[in-house]
TrEMBL record:
InterPro entries: CheY-like_superfamily, NreC/VraR/RcsB-like_REC, Sig_transdc_resp-reg_C-effctor, Sig_transdc_resp-reg_receiver, Tscrpt_reg_LuxR_C, WalR-like
Tree of life domain: Bacteria
Signal peptide (residue range): none
Organism: Mesorhizobium abyssinicae
Residue span, HTH luxR-type domain: 135-200
rRNA-binding is among the record's keywords: no
Keyword annotations of the record: DNA-binding, Phosphoprotein, Transcription, Transcription regulation
Modification type 4-aspartylphosphate: residues: 49
A Pfam family matched in the record: Response_reg
Name of protein: Response regulator transcription factor
Length: 206
């Protein structure tokens, strides 16, 4: 976790560390500390504030990925600017979370990038992605299993993790996921997240 505000750094760090499937291995207040700490701890994910003193978060992401290509970087920022998002993605960032969002959004972003996907905060995604012209599918058309699977997908879990949670084979999970996304006409994870948020599914999992 990299942030130059001590309260934010300790607060979010403690929140992440409190998850059963996550552990904070280092905290840093600037780019130099981040490069040193990440070099020693070799984490799976780095959550990086964009507005750092000196070397900003975007530049830090570029430098980190030059040294550690497998590192997954998530930008955490107060700026809801599509241009900032484009800079983060161009630098190699895998996630973009707005600071005014809930802690659930950040946890979801971490799980999402760990599963191999990109994550864009729904607050920003809704602004930069064109709305569908057709009526979106009705959640009432889903079976109980289809709903459970697509809800967990929206929360950032991988097919393997969902398989474990629901005690079903990965192939069965993939089938339920495909059926659900076809019924709802959702063709990306970002669309699934927006839909889940709109019908209150994410709040149910908090």
């Amino acid at each position: 976790m990299v942030d130059d505000h001590p309260i934010v750094l300790s607060g979010i760090g403690a929140m992440i560390d409190g998850q059963v499937d996550m552990t904070i291995v280092g905290l840093a207040a600037n780019a130099d500390e981040a490069l040193e700490t990440i070099g020693k701890a070799l984490p799976d994910v780095a959550v990086i504030d964009i507005s750092l003193p000196g070397v900003n978060g975007v530049m830090l992401i570029e430098r980190l990925l030059e040294r550690y290509p497998s590192l997954k970087c998530i930008a955490l920022t107060a700026h809801e600017d599509p241009g900032c998002l484009r800079q983060v993605l161009a630098a190699g960032g895998r996630g973009f979370v707005v600071k005014r969002s809930t802690t659930t959004d950040l946890l979801q972003a971490i799980r999402c990038v760990l599963a191999g996907d990109n994550y864009v905060d729904p607050a920003l995604a809704a602004r930069i992605l064109s709305p569908r012209s057709s009526v979106q599918g009705d959640a009432g058309n889903l079976s109980e299993r289809e709903r459970s699977v697509i809800q967990l997908v929206a929360f950032g879990y991988s097919n393997k993790e969902i398989s474990s949670r629901l005690n079903l084979s990965i192939k069965t999970i993939e089938t339920y996921r495909t059926r659900a996304t076809d019924k709802l006409e959702l063709h990306s994870r970002a669309a699934i997240v927006r839909f889940a948020q709109s019908v209150g599914w994410l709040a149910e999992l908090q």
